[in-house]
Structures are given as C-alpha cells and as structure tokens.
UniProtKB/TrEMBL annotation:
InterPro entries, alphabetized: Thiolase, Thiolase-like, Thiolase_acyl_enz_int_AS, Thiolase_AS, Thiolase_C, Thiolase_CS, Thiolase_N
Pathway given in the UniProt record: Lipid metabolism; fatty acid beta-oxidation
Name of the protein: Trifunctional enzyme subunit beta, mitochondrial
Taxonomic lineage: Eukaryota, Metazoa, Chordata, Craniata, Vertebrata
SUPFAM superfamilies: Thiolase-like
Subunit structure: Heterotetramer of 2 alpha/HADHA and 2 beta/HADHB subunits; forms the mitochondrial trifunctional enzyme. Also purified as higher order heterooligomers including a 4 alpha/HADHA and 4 beta/HADHB heterooligomer which physiological significance remains unclear. The mitochondrial trifunctional enzyme interacts with MTLN. Interacts with RSAD2/viperin.
Classification via PROSITE patterns: THIOLASE_1 (PS00098), THIOLASE_2 (PS00737), THIOLASE_3 (PS00099)
Entry EC no(s): 2.3.1.155, 2.3.1.16
Subcellular location: Endoplasmic reticulum; Mitochondrion inner membrane; Mitochondrion outer membrane
Gene name as annotated: HADHB
NCBIfam families membership: AcCoA-C-Actrans (TIGR01930)
Species in which this protein is naturally found: Meleagris gallopavo
Length: 474
C-alpha cells in the first residue's frame, strides 16, 4: 500500500484553490500575518434536544518549555499541580465543587503512575475528590476532555477538571530485562549463598539500559520516519515544510507579543525564576532552516529539527461544567464542547492522517460543512504532516480510494488555520496539547467573531480526534 500511495498521490492534480493557498505562495509572507477577522455570523446552535450542554468555563496552561530547560529538575505532577493551581487562581472555583479530575499523559513517571491524583492532592483538592489518568498518545488530554464530557452528560458529575501533562526532561530509563529479572529473583533469595549464586550470573550486557523510544510498537518505526514517508507520498517538498514551520513560529511570536495567548499562566519554578512565556517560539529564516540536515531519513529526507515539533515539558487544565451548573455558580462560560469523534487507521502507512479521517465524520455528526467553520486548530506534529493532511482532505481520489467517501471534505483555508501558531512553535507536551487546542479555539472565536471551531489531532497508533467548539453567546 505504501508504494501505491506514494506513486499515485505524487501525481495527483492539486486543485487550483490548494495551489494558490499552499504551493504557489510562501506561507510565511506578510499576508498570512494580517489575516482578516472573521465577521460575526448568525448560525444555528449545535445544541441537541435532550442532551446536556457542556461548557468550558476556563482553560489554562503553564508555559510550554523545551525539555532540558527550567522544568528539568521537576516531576510531572509538579507541572500538573501548577496548572491546576493556575486554574483555581483564575476561576476562584471552590475546590470542593469539583466532582472529578482526569488527566492525560503519555510517558508515565513510575512513582506517580496516577499523576492526576498526585497533582490534585498537591494542588489542595480534597482527598474525597476522585481522579484518574488516561493515555492515548498525543490525544491524551483530548481523551481527558471527552471523558469529562461523558461524566457530565451521563449525570455522574456537574463539574470536572480535565487536563494533561508531559515532562520529557526526565523520562523513565529501565534496566535491561535480564537485569530486572535477576534483581527480582535476588529480592526473593533467602540465603547468602543463593544471593551470591544469582549475582555471579550477572554479565556486562545486563547493565545496558532500555531507553524509551518515540516509536510505534507495532512497526518499530519512529514518528519522524513516518512523517518523512508521508511527506514523500504526498509530494510535499522540503521548502514547503520549512515555509509552513516558519509561518507557525512567526504567527506564534506575533500572538505572544500581542498578548493573545490568554491561556498561559505564570509558574514560579522552585529554586528558579518565575516562567511567564513559552520558550520554543523562535522565528528563523528559510536560509538558516535550509542548512539543517534531515533528522530521520538520511541523507535525502525532508523532515528536520526545524520543521518538526520539539520535545516539550508542560501541563494544561480546563474547567468543564454543565451549562446549568456554570450559570448557577455565576460563571460566564467561554464555549460549548459539542460533537467529537475518534478514528484509527493503519499505523504503518497512515500514522499521521487522523485529522483527514476525523474531520468529515465530526462535521457530518453536527450537520455542518467546512464552510461553516470559522476557526481551525490542528495539532502540528510535523509541517509535512499538516501539509499532507491538507492535501489528502482536498483530494477526491483519496476520499474515494481510502476513506470510502464519494468526495473530498476540502482543506481548511489558511486564513482560518492555526493563526496564533501551533505545536511546531508553541511546543507539544504529548499529554497536554489537546486542551491547548480547545481553549485556543474558544479564544480565537471570541476574538475573531466566529461561532464554530474545529479541533483535530493525529496520534501514535494511527489514531486521531476531532471536536467541535461553539462560542458561548456573548
């Protein structure tokens, strides 16, 4: 399938709209930085009879930092606790009003396997407030959010805090399996002789550590390698990927300077200064970016450190309620969380195409089209992944041959797409990004006068998620 996909899609005719929007102009040009505000529209609400309205009261995140920087000496629950405290400070919600806490994470710290519970206790929540942790690769906090939606919709809870955390600065490194087995057996040995006999069997290769790898268990392929193959299959050039990455950094820098990243809360790092902003936003130049060597497929690959999301530390938190409860407590919600879908595909050939499969499904559930969406917030794992998804979404051939659909859903227009930057520039703590996408969509809807936002993301395992966000009536 890989070879067929590569050779067939490479020769796909791009629509004129796509050609104008992506390939015939620089994505980093000034026109992209001056995207006009969406005009206020009068559209139907997505409320459904007999279904509770779930609202976002507030969403925050501590600054997303490159791994190995200011958060390097902390633990994941420290970051999650800081996000929870930031949410409490901003909303003044009484801790005992929160019925449940759910957090997403990917690479778990073994000492705090249920990081949601440890963070909640650290943030001062009652020990009577249940908390659990979910994992679904890069859509872990998306899963946390929708788990919260389910709890509220089912009538089990009125108030849920959902979030996510990742600390890539300090990931668990295991002894080899041989050494682990020996040590466990040694722990059960009863006599000195038995212990010495076991110790005598240890060989030098037992000490080789097992490092965690950002790779697919089923294919043993790294996500970067998959991104390189996907870019090649869809004929996405190195220049186009660099242009898109530069656009992300430039737009993020502009949003940061204009104070648009309203979800960021300061974090006083123990023993260090207070961190107030993301530190991975670094607009460069196409000339400088072109000098970097391929990071995964060498020497001819097109995915580099400059057009990939970087290893990031960070945490996020969102306050979800039933609309009735929020109003009773005196809150003015930011947005409704509406229809959502999860999808999964072949983890070998279509690892990063989750948004392509999820977008038409969630639109159909809501009775909307791409033209109805005012704000798009997609997770940027790699520039090539974003551009490949856009090309797939704009292809009737792909829709008919791979998705079982009669026609394409269409690609998001760039003037509505990730206009405050994305994961390439803001950073991507695996477990925390989904909440950032959702609250950014809500903030952009209010700023730009739109009503509907669409959040989408790919994830390891060939999975994906999409969700509709509707602005709360102003």
């Amino acid at each position: 399938m890989t070879s067929m996909l590569t050779h067939t899609i490479r020769n796909l005719p791009a629509s004129s709209a796509w050609a104008v929007r992506v390939f015939a102009r620089s994505l980093s040009c000034s026109s992209q930085l001056q995207a006009p505000a969406v005009q206020p529209k009068s559209k139907k609400t997505l409320a459904k009879s007999g279904v509770k309205n779930i609202v976002v009261v507030e969403g925050v995140r501590i600054p997303f930092l490159q791994s190995g920087t200011s958060y390097a000496d902390l633990m994941p629950h420290d970051l999650a606790r800081a996000a929870l405290q930031g949410l409490l400070n901003r909303t003044s919600v009484p801790r005992d009003v929160v019925d449940y806490i759910v957090y997403g994470t990917v690479i778990q710290e073994v000492k705090t396997s249920n990081v949601a519970r440890e963070a909640a206790l650290g943030a001062g929540f009652s020990d009577k407030t249940p908390a659990h942790t979910v994992t679904m690769a890069c859509i872990s906090s998306n899963q946390a959010m929708t788990t919260g939606i389910g709890l509220i919709a089912a009538g089990q809870c009125d108030v849920v805090v959902a979030g996510g955390v990742e600390l890539m600065s300090d990931v668990p490194i295991r002894h080899s399996r041989k050494m682990r087995k020996t040590m466990l057996t040694l722990n059960r040995a009863k006599t000195v002789g038995q212990k010495l006999a076991l110790i005598s069997k240890i060989r030098p290769d037992y000490f080789a550590p097992e490092l965690p790898a950002v790779a697919e268990f089923s294919t043993s392929e790294t996500m970067g390698h998959s991104a390189d193959r996907l870019a090649a299959a869809f004929a996405i050039s190195r220049v186009e990927q660099d242009e898109y990455a530069l656009r992300s950094h430039t737009l993020a820098k502009k949003a940061q300077e204009e104070g648009l990243l309203l979800d960021v809360v300061p974090f006083k790092v123990p023993g260090k200064d207070t961190v107030t902003k993301d530190n991975g936003i670094r607009p460069s130049s196409l000339e400088q970016m072109s000098k970097l060597k391929p990071a995964f497929v060498k020497p001819y690959g097109t995915v580099t450190a400059a057009n990939s999301s970087f290893l990031t530390d960070g945490a996020s938190a969102m306050l979800l309620m039933s609309e009735e409860k929020a109003l009773a407590l005196g809150y003015k919600p930011k947005a409704y969380l509406r229809d959502f879908v999860y999808v999964s595909q072949d983890p070998k050939d279509q690892l990063l195409l989750g948004p392509t499969y999820a977008t038409p499904k969630v639109l159909e559930k809501a009775g909307l089209t791409m033209a109805d969406i005012d704000v798009f917030e997609f997770h940027e794992a790699f520039a090539g992944q974003i551009l490949a998804n856009m090309k797939a979404m704009d292809s009737d051939w792909f829709a008919q041959n791979y998705m079982g659909r009669k026609s394409k859903v269409g690609a998001p227009p760039l003037e509505k797409f990730n206009t405050w930057g994305g994961s390439l520039s803001l950073g991507h703590p695996f477990g925390a990004t989904g909440c950032r996408l959702a609250i950014t969509a809500a903030h952009r809807l209010k700023k730009e006068g739109g009503q509907y936002g669409l959040v989408a993301a790919c994830a390891a395992g060939g999975q994906g998620h999409a969700m509709l966000v509707e602005l709360y009536p102003q």
